[in-house]
Every structure is written in C-alpha cells, then in structure tokens.
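Z., the sequence and structure:
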Amino acid sequence: MHDSPRLTSPWRTSVAPMMDWTDRHCRYLHRLISRHTLLYTEMVTTGALIHGDVERHLRYNAEEHPVALQLGGSEAADLAHCARLGEQWGYDEINLNCGCPSERVQRGAFGACLMAEAGLVADGVKAMLDAVQRVPVTVKHRIGIDRIESYEFVRDFIGTVSEAGCRVFIVHARNAWLKGLSPKENREIPPLRYELVHRLKQEFPQLTIAINGGITTSAQMQAQLDHVDGVMVGREAYHNPWVMADWDELFYDSAAQSLSREDVEARMCDYMARQMAEHGTPWHTMARHMLGLRNGLPGARRWRQVWSDHRLRHLSPQEVMVLAHQERSEPLPV
C-alpha cells in the first residue's frame, strides 16, 4: 500500500522535458488527456532567457498547470535570475538539467557534465532557492557519466546537492556517455539500472526521488512506484499519448479521463484555430504533436498521412479532421 506522501506527490507521474517536442502546444494536448500529470517544458538555457525573447520562451497556456520550467545553465547568478523569471511567469516548479549528454550542451558547461561538479550544482541550486519565494527547485540527472558506474558517485552527488536545499531529484536510470554517443544513443545504449535509483530512495527517504528511463506502460509505472515516489515517462508519452488516458484514475485516485480520442482531436482543432487567429501559428506545427493519438487503431496510418499532408495546409484544422476521418474509415487499398 502506498503511503500518503507518495500518493499526493506532485511528481507521482510526469512527462519528461524533450527538446523540439514538449513545447506549449504538445503540453496542451497532454493536458487534455491527463488532468494531473506534471508537464515539463523543453530545456530553456539561461542565455536564451537573459539575452533573448523572454515571452517566446516562457509563454504557456493556463490550462497546462501543473507545469515545470526546465533550465539549462551553470552560473549561479544566471540561474537565480532565470528561476525568478520562471516564478514570476507562474511556473509550478523550476528544474535544473543535469542529465542532457549532447556535446552542444557540454560546450555550454551544463547538462550531464555538471554531475562531475556537484559543488557547482549545489551553488546553483542554493542561488535559485534564494531567488524564488514559493516554487520548488528540482534537479534532473543521470546515475553516472561515462565509465563511472559506482553507486557512490550518484549517492554523493545527491548528498551534496540536497545539502544546498534541493528536496526533489528526477533520476534517469542510465549513465550519460559524454563522448562517442549521440543523444539518441545515450537514451538507448547505456544499460538501465533501476536498482540504483531504488537504493537512492532507501538511503534518502526524506527526499522525493522520481525515476525516468525506458518506462512505457502503466504496469511498469505501478511497479516502480513500489520503490520510488514518482515516474517520469518520455518518448512513449509523445509517440503514444493515449498511454496517459488512465493515469488520473490509476495514480491519483481521481475520476477517469472522460474525453475520447475524437474529443481530444476536436479540442486540439479548436485550439489550433485559436492559435492561428491570435498568434499566426501555422496549424501543422501544432498538429505534429498529436500524430500518435490513434496509435494501434485501425486506419491510424491513413489518418496520420492526412494530418501530415503539406498539400492540405491551406485548409482549416476542422476541415483536415473531417478528411482524416474519411480516410481512416475506408479500407486500405490491396
């Protein structure tokens, strides 16, 4: 039986921050499917916020709550400034990326390479906590970097950063190889070691520990929740978003999500039409996020093909939806 703190943890289920994927349009779709799951932005670098268009990076839809802002950076003063911005914009959490392995991120001295500098991360976390008034500051990280595979490495990292005041750690249960693997390979080749994350929860019972990496089904999530406080799902939630349809009922003791896939699609069409009218956003840049909505159903491929057809971009989303359902209902040609 799950104890009360785990049952009520805001981190019980979440969708991972994913570059080029979890923008505000994607998060709007996900919120239609699950009312309670915590949603994360794509990583936003401190440089982009300090020197770029703050509104473009931080604007989101009110319906997205609870929504967390993930920051990438390593300079304490910059992180503090950006955490304060995130709180001012109304985000429910500020998360520091210590898990991304890409070489582009490493050149900026943040992401997974920060795991080798726990003291620097602790300084950044403390500065962020000092800068905000109401929101938690959390850290997402790996279990190790390169060939460092000892439990003691990740234990000491969490120990040091928690002393600075961080109470929530989201742990991707793979090492990050900083050289020799692409970001995609880094999500697949280093072996998953869930037992290390379970051990972290045992050693730090006072902290919230959520697990990430390779988890694709509600049954797998339930099994992990016997050991940790939360589960973060990444690519599966994006490619097969309907996997979230029973999460509210299973993990939050809440009423089941009442919308059908067709209802979600229709609401996305209304949303896309509003975004086009208010911001001039082309509907196809938003529709790409729902191409997995009918995964596994008859006619799904033909439905996806219609929504992806560039020749239809002059039509309204509602007109494309009608065409997509006409196509999926017809038998595939022999």
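The longest strand covers residues 137-145. Confidence is low (pLDDT under 50) at residues 1-6.

Let me know what you think.
H.
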